[in-house]
Batch of 2 targets.
Target 1
Amino acid sequence: MTSILEGFYKQGQIELLQAPRGLPEGRVRIILIAEEHPQLPPCPLTFGKYRTGRMSALEDFQDAEWRGDAELDQPHG
């Protein structure tokens, strides 16, 4: 049986995102394909997008700005 599954390799272990259907327990062969993580385009906030009765201030945008977190940017940290 041949099946293609998504997963992660980290520190000598492979973690599958889903269990293969119809595959009995036993030995398997694995082909690893390294993938680049695509950089998502920025999604800018728009002044006045949400009607809260007041206009958005510059401080609102600075509070909501994502500055990144190395631990959270890596899948399965």
Target 2
Amino acid sequence: MNKILIVGEQPLICNLLSRELTQEEYQVIALTDTTLLWKQILGFQPELVLLDLDLHTCDCWQLLCEIKDKQPELAVLVYAHTGLASIIKLKQAIEVAAPTKRLSAASNS
């Protein structure tokens, strides 16, 4: 798993997550405008979507249901940002959700 789409309305948080994940060698797009979600999903074709629980312009759960209805194979992690500790835990969750990245990195060694 190399492509991650971050969906959140707080640019600072999205940029921080994007930077952290890019350092881990993921391809990342951070999206702060949820109206562009399907354009990014269809164009970027992420293997994982990180969805902010605290969206203000739309309902996170409704968006999650829409994603899973239209793209059931697409992995989605819902996150809640509560500080630096939550970013560390989110990175750990991504590592668990993204075993193919570790496997492909090990096979390239």
